[in-house]
Write a structure and sequence with these properties.
Elements (H helix, E strand, L loop, with lengths): L5 H18 L5 H18 L1 E4 L5 E4 L7 E2 L35
Antiparallel strand pairs: 1-2, 2-3
Length: about 100
């Protein structure tokens, strides 16, 4: 099973909002936002968080079987998780490293 991406989260949120409006066409935007925030907070609370062997934060999303870095794009690779548009990649991590909890 693949990791849940931010795009997946957006699609879930969109479907949730459509469902709320279908049930109650007079619902306010504030009410929808509050209900959606509660659902998304629950999903995030269910995620398992750790520190990767590369030193960055990683997460096991709900329904996933593989760790990903806790970044906007949720990369698996340690090197990919370091990318910035201004600085490129941090080459200090081996290219073969993927998100994996650090050993205690």
């Amino acid at each position: 099973m693949q990791s849940i991406t931010h795009e997946d989260q957006f699609r879930f949120a969109y479907r949730h909002v459509l469902g709320e409006v279908a049930e109650n066409p007079r619902i306010s935007g504030v009410e929808i936002a509050e209900r959606l925030a509660a659902v998304l907070a629950h999903l995030e609370a269910e995620e398992e968080h750790r520190t990767c062997r590369c030193g960055r934060a990683i997460v096991m999303p709900v329904g996933a079987t593989q760790w990903v870095h806790d970044t906007r794009d949720r990369e698996r690779g340690c090197r990919a998780a370091t990318f910035t548009s201004s600085g490129g990649w941090d080459d200090s991590n081996p290219r073969s490293w993927t998100a994996k909890p650090a050993k205690p």
